[in-house]
Design goal:
Layout (H helix, E strand, L loop, with lengths): L3 E4 L6 H12 L2 E4 H11 L2 H12 L5 H14 L5 E4 L5 H13 L6 E6 L2 H9 L1 E4 L5 E3 L19 E2 L6 H15 L1 H8 L3 E5 L4 H13 L1
Parallel strand pairs: 1-3, 1-4, 2-3, 4-8
Antiparallel strand pairs: 5-6, 5-7
Helix pairs in contact: 2-3, 4-5
The structure holds adenosine-5'-diphosphate (2 copies) and zinc ion.
Length: about 220
């Protein structure tokens, strides 16, 4: 069993690769972005509180996402956890280390998904997800089947995120460079960092991640 982090800017392909790992290795995907969107959809107090922050493309506070992750780690995962979009700050990284240690778990690797900023506008503005199963699609690189039905679950519920626009992406990228990119040095210093070229085709990225996990 192993616990890993997928680290990269918005649109790097973290969610896409996490879903592959869930299928191929029975790991459990923990996406704080998905959890926050669920909270928003449920209309909970926390969901209302974070809605505007997410729409602007800023990060929500550490205490909120750490609370969400704490609950999920406590549930355990036989195949190991994939942290997708968490941690995003040094404070979150320290908290994750503590939470894992409390549970007697370890962090086994951090995969950096390296991409050029230039590729991200197209990645983000072309993204859609299946409302039925969460499968990630892209208008150009992974279009919905011609009959409009998800190849994974058959649903025709195409979802696009309100924050997947160029304006919000600018803020999200600035947040990434300011607050999240320091984690690359943090994990490199611990000897945990593996970098893969996220600009390759999805299958090639998946193969490189698999190789990094064997190393
Ligand atoms: P992407 O897949 O494009 O990187 P996510 O779905 O991971 O986006 O996150 C969407 C939004 O949710 C972020 O822009 C941010 O507002 C919020 N968010 C998600 N994860 C975190 C986190 N770990 N810390 C703070 N904010 C987060
Ligand atoms: P993240 O979770 O890092 O924000 P996603 O996995 O949601 O990124 O991917 C963003 C968009 O780019 C999606 O529309 C997805 O289908 C597409 N995508 C992901 N990986 C690749 C790839 N290797 N090549 C081309 N498009 C990709
Ligand atoms: Zn589906």
């Amino acid at each position: 069993m192993s616990n890993i982090i997928l680290l990269g800017p918005p649109g790097a392909g973290k969610g896409t690769q996490a879903r592959q790992l869930v299928e191929s290795r029975g790991m459990v995907q923990l996406s704080t972005g998905d959890m926050l969107r669920e909270a928003q959809a449920s209309g909970s107090e926390m969901g209302k509180k974070v809605a505007e922050v997410i729409a602007r493309g800023e990060l929500v506070t550490d205490d909120i996402v750490i609370g969400l992750i704490r609950e999920k780690i406590a549930e355990g995962a036989e195949g190991g956890f994939i942290f997708d979009g968490f941690p995003r700050t040094l404070g979150q990284a320290d908290a994750l280390g503590d939470l894992l240690a409390e549970m007697g778990l370890s962090l086994d690797g951090v995969i950096e998904m390296a991409v050029d900023d230039g590729a991200l506008v197209a990645r983000i503005t072309g993204r859609s997800t299946c409302g039925g199963c969460g499968e990630v699609y892209h208008d150009q690189t992974k279009p919905w089947p011609a009959d409009g039905k998800c190849s994974n679950c058959g649903s025709s519920d195409v979802k696009r995120r309100a924050d997947d626009n160029e304006e919000s992406l600018k803020t999200r990228l600035m947040e990434y460079y300011k607050k999240t990119s320091p984690l690359l040095g943090y994990y490199y210093a611990k000897g945990d960092l593996h970098s893969v070229d996220g600009l390759q085709a999805m299958e090639a990225v998946a193969a490189d991640i698999a190789a990094a996990l064997e190393a």
